[in-house]
Amino acid sequence: MAKVVGVGGVFFKASDPEALGAWYSKWLGFTIEREFTAAHFAPGDMAAGGYTVWHPMRPDTDYPSPSTKPFMINLVVDDLDEALAQVREGGAEIIGDTEVHEFGSFGWFMDPDGNKIELWQPAVKPEGS
């Protein structure tokens, strides 16, 4: 039986894809492929301890709030505090307080198109664990 081995991409509508791509390029370092207004991330680019989650949420969840979109995107970062400062400087609204859990630290913001974005800095696990 064939099986899924990872998430191949996140595709969503944007009111101005070029402007949103330029914003992410400037404030979070995305390398935008101009032909497709897209960025790609190779598996080797993932932070130590990072992984991809696929999670259908219940229809009554408020996790994507205050966005009115039915989704939220999680981006893995190498420095959560710096990434949040960068997007704040870029005009993003920071949502809530940073949270620290055993699997890493999280922070949230609303991007210029009204998408709630979760930033995750994975916890680095000690060697051998």
Write a short abstract of this structure.
The protein has 129 residues and is α+β, with helices and mostly antiparallel strands. It is built from two helices and six strands, in the order H-E-E-E-H-E-E-E.
Can you offer a commentary on this structure?
By secondary structure, the protein is an alpha+beta fold. The chain has a domain at 48-122: 2,3-Dihydroxybiphenyl 1,2-Dioxygenase, domain 1 (Roll). Helices cover 17% and strands 24% of the residues. It has 2 helices and 6 strands. It has helices at residues 17-28, 80-89; strands at residues 32-33, 38-39, 73-76, 93-101, 104-110, 116-122. The strands form 2 sheets. Strands 3-6-5-4 form a 4-stranded mixed beta sheet, covered by helices on one side. Strands 1-2 form a two-stranded antiparallel sheet. Strand 5 and strand 6 form a beta hairpin. The radius of gyration is 15 Å and the shape is globular. It starts with 16 loop residues before the first helix and ends in a 7-residue tail after the last strand. The mean pLDDT is 88.
Whole-number mean pLDDT:
88
Report the principal-axis shape: globular
CATH architecture identity of the domain at 48-122: Roll
Radius of gyration: 15 Å
Helix content: 10-25%
Oligomer: single chain
Query: What percent of residues are in strands?
Result: 15-25%
**Overall strand count:** 6
Q: How many helical stretches?
A: 2
What structural class do helix, strand and pairing data support? alpha+beta
Q: CATH first level of the domain at 48-122: which class?
A: Alpha Beta
What is the CATH T-level topology of the domain at 48-122? Answer: 2,3-Dihydroxybiphenyl 1,2-Dioxygenase, domain 1
